[in-house]
Every structure is written in C-alpha cells, then in structure tokens.
Amino acid sequence: MKQLHDLAEAQALALAIVDTLPEPFMVLDDALHLLAGSRCFYEVFGEDPAKAPGRSLFELSGGQWDIPGLAQLLAAVVPQRTGVEGFEFEQHFSRLGRRTIQLNALPIRDDKGDSRMILLAIKDITERREAEQEKQRLLEHTEELLEQQRTLLREMQHRIANSLQIIASILLLKAGSVSSEETKNELRAAHQRVMSVAAVQSHLHASDGIEQIEMGPYLTKLSAGLASSMVGPKQHVAIVVAASPGTLPTSHAVSIGLIVTELIMNAIKYAFPKPRKSARIRVTFEKAKSDWKLTVSDNGAGRSPGEGPTRSTGLGTALIGALAKQLDAQITEVSSPKGLTVAVTRSTFESRLPVAA
C-alpha cells in the first residue's frame, strides 16, 4: 500500500509541475489517455481541463491529434523506455488554423526506473518553418537572378569578343592594302593591341569570371598569340613566360596586357636586327599582396645610343607611359650589349625570379 501511495504522490507532483509550465505539455498514461495537461495546453488548444483528462489523445481537439504513425511511436515509449524526438506534422486545428507542430515525448519513471506515464512536449514551429520556406524561396529566386545575370554576361562577352575579332580583322586587311610601310606597321601594331584586349575577353569567358584574372595563364596565352602572329618564319624568336600565382582586377589585366603587347612588339622589331637561332624574349610577372612586378627582357642587341625609353617612338611609348601611370607603377630600363630589360613595378615589390633572357 505504501508503494502505491508513494507512486500516487509522485504522479500528483509530476502533474502539478506540468500544470505550471508556460508551454503546451501533456501527461499521458501507457494507454495514451490524457492524465493532465499544462494550463497553456488547455488554453491554446481550447480543451476543458475538467473534461479532457481521461480521454484518449486521439479524441482530443475533434480527433485532430490522430496523426498517421504517431500512435505507434507513442505506444513504444513506455514498454521500450525510449523517447520520440522531433516528430513533425501539419494539421488544421479549429482554434488555430493550419499549424506545423513538433512533438517530443519522454517516459516518466519512478524511483525503481519503471515508467507508467509519457511526458509529451508540444511546440508550434509554424512561423519557423514559414520563415525557412521563405528563405528558401528567396535563395532560389536569387539564384535564378544570378543565372540570368551570368547568361547575359556570357552573351555580352561573346558579342564583345566577336566585335574585337572583326575590328582586328579589318585592321589586318587594311595593313595588307596600304603601300606605306610606316602605315602598314602602325595598322599591324593596332591589330595586336586589339588582340591583346581580345585575349582578356577570351580568358574571362573561359574562366567564367568578371572581376579577377589569373595573370600566369593570361600572359602565357597573350604571348603565344603574339609569337604566332608577329614572329616571322625567318626570325626564330622564342617568347617564354614565367609567372607566380596571383590575380588582378580585369581592368588592370587589360592595361598590363597592352604594356606586354607593346614591349614584345618592340623587342621583335628592334632587338634582333640580324636573325639568330637563340633569340629569346622573356616575360615575368610576380605578385605579393597589392604589389606586383612585370618584366619583359630580351637577349638582343640592346638599346642603341640616343634611342628613347622602351626602344619605341610615337604611340607605343605614349601608351606604355600612360598605362603605367594609370596603374600607379614605375618604369625602369636596363640596357647592355647582352639585351634590354624593361620592368614595370607597382610600389616596393622585390623580385625573386631571374629576369635575364
């Protein structure tokens, strides 16, 4: 009798504690009948605290707790001494409308470890799920807009590349039709400048990027294009590139590409007045944080006495100077009978790669 009395007292205490909880809770017996509910449960779900106890869970709220699978889960709590965690369902409740409910159930055990009751915690997560769904919809919409932007960007890059190719082709045709050798050379130089910009566009299209260019692959591709179009069959001039990993904004890459184009064209024109098999032009690029250094060197004849900076005149010299100023970079030149080295340096960069051709 004392054990039964103690058990009754324990149950009464448990029910009293549940009644004080500020959230919806139910205490069920092992047959899933309601023993007690928290005051919040009765208020939220509109149950009469005098009539609801003793009724089956699945009779409450007009049978709206009769959820497929829930009876099997709860029926296993007492005999298996296990819990139910995070069981979710959507249901229309007469007082609340359509809600998303999350249930957690635990067995209530006595001092011997036996369980005769189930504590059922009820959490309304409707707003949370709606917020998550809205967030997912926004993410999907954002991704759709980004994909549209990427499509437009690819189309724009394609149109720009086509336009540059057309301009370059026209310049090359004009160069072939004029009789003046000076005009012919200027048109060919203009053609190479356009092709330098086209190389950036091609690299952007291949990397699907819009802001940063990896300089090593870009300069390698640019130099290869210059070698194939500018080096004659009798010249045998090799153009090699050595670049450390690093990216630059697209606008900076375009300017550096144009500088490289001018310096390589100058070297091809002036560095090797007599053909030689070992003729070589070397392009190096290094980057450290925001600083970088570009070097174009050759193993040619060097600059002749009285020859202007960068061994070029006219538009080429002005273009290199303007681009370097735009990049906040300085131009230095070292000339000897073993060749010419032109360096374009931003800030206080210290070189770690050999620059000799």
**Number of alpha- plus pi-helical segments:** 9
Number of strands: 12
Output the CATH topology of the largest domain.
Heat Shock Protein 90
The chain-level structural class is alpha+beta
CATH superfamily of the largest domain: Histidine kinase-like ATPase, C-terminal domain
Distance between the termini: 104 Å
CATH C-level class of the largest domain? Alpha Beta
Oligomer: single chain
Q: How much of the sequence is in beta strands?
A: 15-25%
Give the topology string: H per helix, E per strand. Answer: HEEHHHEEEHHEHEEHEEHEE
Percent of residues in helices: 40-55%
What's the domain count? 3
User: What is Rg?
Assistant: 40 Å
Question: Do you know the CATH architecture of the largest domain?
Answer: 2-Layer Sandwich
* Mean pLDDT value: 82
Biggest sheet architecture? 5 strands, antiparallel
Which ranges are low-confidence, i.e. pLDDT below 50, for 5 or more consecutive residues? none
Overall geometry comes to rod-shaped
Any overview of this molecule?
- Helices cover 46% and strands 24% of the residues.
- The chain has a 5-stranded antiparallel β-sheet with strand order 2-1-5-4-3, with helices on both faces. A 5-stranded mixed β-sheet has the order 7-9-10-12-11, with helices on one face.
- It contains 9 helices and 12 strands.
- A hairpin with a 5-residue loop joins strand 4 and strand 5 (115-124).
- Helix 6 packs antiparallel against helix 8 (250-270) and helix 8 runs antiparallel to helix 9 (315-326).
- It has 3 domains: 2-124, PAS domain (Beta-Lactamase, 2-Layer Sandwich), CATH 3.30.450; 128-210; 211-357, Heat Shock Protein 90 (2-Layer Sandwich).
